[in-house]
Amino acid sequence: SQQGEEDPQALSIQEGENATMNCSYKTSINNLQWYRQNSGRGLVHLILIRSNEREKHSGRLRVTLDTSKKSSSLLITASRAADTASYFCATGIIQGAQKLVFGQGTRLTINP
Amino acid sequence: DSGVTQTPKHLITATGQRVTLRCSPRSGDLSVYWYQQSLDQGLQFLIQYYNGEERAKGNILERFSAQQFPDLHSELNLSSLELGDSALYFCASSTSLNTEAFFGQGTRLTVV
Predict the structure, then answer these.
(1) How far is CA B42 from the centre of its chain?
(2) pLDDT digits (tens, 9 = 90+) for A46-75
């Protein structure tokens, strides 16, 4: 079973708008990571936020983490056509080793 | 380029056969993960190795096995292949147990 669940499953917005994706998870985590995947290609790491952090920024990306609600959000500001991809959250669970468990992903489409 | 190399990129084989997928991690990375991605199952964690030792196991079938060699490259062996094993198989590596993972471009396996 999947640990993380992204919401929405699909999102379509106009270029220049902001895109927000959410991730909920079930068990305690050590960190939460966001990845991007262009169709049929490898995943690209975007950002890692540790369980003791609440917010993190990287360029146009902003990630928040609320461990009390077991949820995270990824905000992409000023979206571009090149941001079209699937976005996955992955929870890092330490059980002697890091088990990185992915959600089903959000398919983001940026319309020009 | 993530620095993680997977071979082959594509593989077509018949049911009942056995194949070996190979992964070379980024230079210096001790941890290797294997994932299976199919359309209906999302990204499934299979197994993780750290410095040659198996450290975490996910939804890996008994027909599948893996190992990490002293030079840190890893191989995933899939045997008695079934049609349902057709998927993208990704390898990822990380420096340690609590850091971001870097993904290879995947091996697309088609079982006919």
Answers:
(1) 15
(2) 999 999 999 999 999 999 999 999 999 999
